[in-house]
Amino acid sequence: MFDQSKVLLGIAPIAWTNDDLPELGGENTFEQCVSEMALAGFRGSEVGNKYPKEPAVLKKALALRNIRIASAWFSAFLTTKPYEETAAAFKQHRDFLHAMGAKVIVVAEQGHSIQGQMNTPVFDAKPVFTAAEWEKLARGLENLGRLAAEKGMKIVYHHHMGTGVQTTGEMERLMTLTDPDLVSLLFDTGHLVFSGEDPEYILRKYAARIRHVHLKDVRRDVLARVKAEKMSFLQAVKAGAFTVPGDGMIDYGPLFKVLAESGYEGWFVVEAEQDPAVANPLEYAIKARQYIKEKTGL
């Protein structure tokens, strides 16, 4: 179904230690995390807060385990702060990822975001950008895309729950406002389904712009609770809303089929933030790896 030389499998460290909720997995070390990634059969990782910040040190630790860096999250504040502040932080982030051999940079706009607020209902209080903010976001992202291109890299925009780019309409607006050569898209199955969107629609419409994929599943019963009890995004995570592909409500068969037909090249990154005390990270990493192999042959 996929060319194994062009589609690579990674997993995010957020299953071992949650950067937004330090109490989840605070006891798990960087060494345990990357060792178990390798043991489960993954060859790539995104970057967590416990990872060494010095490229040479990180490269050595990863090389021992045959792990590569796929990308890392970057928080942009293009709608709420001067562009220069975001650009300065982005260059530093870009240069680190370039040194690690990554080809894409995950960017998410955090201006007005509620995703990190513990008591703000994720569905009821979602931010909505003004026309002026949309313009700032679009032009700012294009400029970040140009900065990435200086190193032969691409930015991939991460639509996300609790932010101004979450829904189908918001994703369509961003894609319309931005140059495809400068702004690519990260396709995250979990955030789309959690939000109530149709992931296959997004996938078919923007296949040519998708350069990074996050594989995250959703537990239907927990999602119902999140809505009924007006939980925040972080409360939803702690309640177990997310899990690995094949363990939730998402039918990945049609999605993998469209990705294969579109000639997707890049990383598939399992990103399923759970409480590691409840969902053993190695156990769930192995479960995800087996499911992906069954569905894709990778």
Work out the helix count: 11
How many beta-strand runs? 11
Looking at the structure, the CATH topology is TIM Barrel
Query: Which CATH class applies here?
Result: Alpha Beta
Largest sheet composition: 9 strands, parallel
> Over the alpha carbons, how many angstroms does the gyration radius reach?
18 Å
Tell me the number of structural domains: 1
> Helix/strand-derived class?
alpha/beta
Mean pLDDT: 98
CATH architecture: Alpha-Beta Barrel
Please identify which CATH superfamily we are dealing with: Divalent-metal-dependent TIM barrel enzymes
Strand line-up of the largest beta sheet: 3-2-1-11-8-7-6-5-4
Principal-axis shape equals: globular
Instruction: Summarize the helix and strand pattern as letters.
Output: EHEHEEHEHEHEHHEEHHEHEH
What is the percentage of strand-forming residues? Answer: 15-25%
The helical percent reads 40-55%
Report the end-to-end length measured between terminal Cα atoms.
8 Å
Low-confidence stretches: none
What does this structure look like?
By secondary structure, the protein is α/β, with parallel strands linked by helices. The protein has one domain (about 5-295): TIM Barrel, CATH 3.20.20.150. Helices cover about 40% and strands about 15% of the residues. The chain has eleven helices and eleven strands. The protein has helices spanning about 30-40, 55-65, 85-100, 130-150, 170-175, 190-195, 200-205, 220-230, 235-240, 250-260, 280-295; strands spanning about 5-10, 45, 70, 75, 105-110, 155-160, 185-190, 210-215, 215-220, 240-245, 265-270. Strands 3-2-1-11-8-7-6-5-4 form a nine-stranded parallel β-sheet. Strands 9-10 form a two-stranded antiparallel sheet. Strand 2 (about 45), helix 2 (about 55-65) and strand 3 (about 70) form a beta-alpha-beta unit. The longest helix is centred in the middle third of the chain and has 19 residues, at about 130-150. The radius of gyration is 18 Å and the shape is globular. The relative contact order is 0.17. The mean pLDDT is about 100.
